[in-house]
Write a structure and sequence with these properties.
The chain is an alpha/beta fold. The chain contains 14 helices and 22 strands. The model has no long low-confidence stretch (mean pLDDT about 90). The radius of gyration is 23 Å and the shape is globular.
Length: about 450
């Protein structure tokens, strides 16, 4: 596909690299020549210097030949206008990044009037991810499928757990829940495990199950579930606003520390039930005064990665609070992953997941669309939910008769709201949605899981 990305900031640059890696012809566009040059230097993409809200600039950048425009500048209005121009001039699909909370309730109207194929609010989605992690404190990652009926939860097997030394084929008889272990990370090794795989304490496992079964699973494998009642949020940006609003709806006490006085006033007005504190969240004296050691969770969402890292490491030393940290710079992510900073949140990755899912669905010709897509284990594993079309080859036999790719596992089948934990004698039917985990890249349809 031919894709034009307007805006070469961190999000645009990350998208360009991701979509280029998936085999698309990508052109990046920005008014700043230096960021265009940086994007073209790090990825095999075409660069164009110009204003995406200019019709002539879009025409020069080749909008008439594009299948998709992604507007990812740092200005919502600019993104929406760029999409409107592209829709009228290029007759292509359009995606706009829209972040401001003022547009949240108006988004349906705006999508219809502007002809947007999709809008993405990375900050709101990131806040939703954080809420799920806070609701399940023992989880490292929480992703949802089947319209929320199934969750993929990443846990660490504790010492002296019933899972330590257990062969996977004995999991159901020993643990007795409807959970299915889909992925195991041991050190730097990633495994899509078979029945003869033996688990060990310290393994990071990704498990599919319904949230209603989670409490029983945690109890049986020896993980204590601690309910989070109060959360400190460092930084008062857009993610913090969305997060605080949702947490207070769940009756969780929220304390926000923000060093910009004007922003504090805005937050206090928008979130009257939150405690908003004007101050520096890296100031140890302030943190002690605000009883950081008594917090159940701390979210490090400041604008500077270094400040977020330092705060998370400090909290690690003084309490057992759950920690979540936002990282902007790609160069920091690998280094930070080796440190005890808690769960890393990246709006760039969230945006890439959503847009990649949409692009893969655009490529599909016969109805097995990608309903959801998540990247796990630092991007080394993909978890996808496919809608199964009438002509899909996976419906031609039982699962044990299908020739499925190596390192690919069917985790669950959603049949009109009934969740099926698949076995060899089960079949996939037209109209099902199917959750798959794989180390393969670039699967666009459910039939791509089959050996050609």
């Amino acid at each position: 596909m031919n894709i034009l990305i307007a805006g070469c900031g961190q999000v645009g640059k990350s998208l360009a690299q991701q979509l280029n890696d998936e085999g698309h012809e990508v052109t990046v566009m920005d008014t700043n020549y230096q960021v265009v040059e940086s994007a073209t230097a790090t990825s095999d993409v075409i660069g164009y210097q110009g204003d995406c809200t200019s019709l002539s600039a879009q025409i020069d950048a080749g909008i008439s030949d594009m299948d998709l425009l992604i507007a990812a500048t740092d200005q919502d209005e600019k993104n929406m206008l760029a999409c409107l121009i592209a829709r009228k001039a290029g007759h292509c699909q359009t995606i706009a990044r829209v972040r401001d909370p003022q547009y949240l309730e108006e988004m349906y109207f705006l999508k219809e009037e502007l002809g947007l194929s999709m809008s993405i609010n990375p900050e709101q989605v990131a806040a939703s991810d954080l809420v799920r992690l806070i609701q399940i404190p023992s989880a490292l990652e929480v992703d949802t499928f089947a319209k929320g009926k199934v969750s993929l939860i990443r846990l660490v097997i504790p010492e002296k757990s019933v899972l330590d030394g257990l062969m996977l084929k004995d999991f159901a008889s020993k643990v007795g829940t409807a959970a299915l272990i889909c992925v195991v990370e041991r050190g730097k090794e990633i495994v899509i495990p078979g029945g003869n795989f033996r688990l060990a304490a310290g393994d990071s496992i990704s498990v599919t199950l319904s949230l209603g079964d989670l409490g029983e699973l945690l109890q049986k494998i020896g993980i204590k579930a601690k309910k989070i009642k109060n959360v400190m949020i460092a930084g008062g940006g857009t993610i913090s606003y969305y997060l605080a609003k949702r947490l207070m709806e769940l009756r969780i006490a929220v304390k926000i520390i923000e060093k910009d006085r004007k922003r504090c006033d805005e937050l206090a007005e928008a979130l009257p039930k939150a405690m908003v504190i004007h101050g520096d969240a890296t100031d140890k004296t302030l943190l002690v005064e605000e009883s950081i050691e008594d917090m159940d969770a701390v979210c490090c969402l400041m604008g500077q990665d270094e400040a977020n890292i330092l705060l998370s490491l400090y909290v690690d030393k003084i309490s057992d609070a759950k920690r979540m940290i936002k990282i902007h710079r790609n160069s920091y992510e690998d280094m930070v992953a080796e440190l005890p900073v808690g769960t890393i949140i990246s709006t760039k990755k969230i945006t890439a997941e959503y847009i990649t899912r949409f692009v893969r669905s655009m490529q599909n010709s016969y109805g097995s669309n990608v309903e959801a897509l998540y990247r796990l284990m630092d991007g080394r594993v993909e978890a996808m939910e496919f809608n199964v079309g009438q002509d899909a080859r996976v419906t031609w036999g039982t699962l044990k008769d299908l020739q499925i790719r190596r390192n690919t596992l069917i985790c669950c089948i959603n049949r009109q709201g009934r969740i099926i934990r698949p076995g060899g004698n089960d079949r996939i039917e037209s109209g099902d949605s199917v959750v798959v985990v794989t180390t393969e890249r670039g699967l666009n349809t459910i039939d791509d899981i089959l050996i050609q």
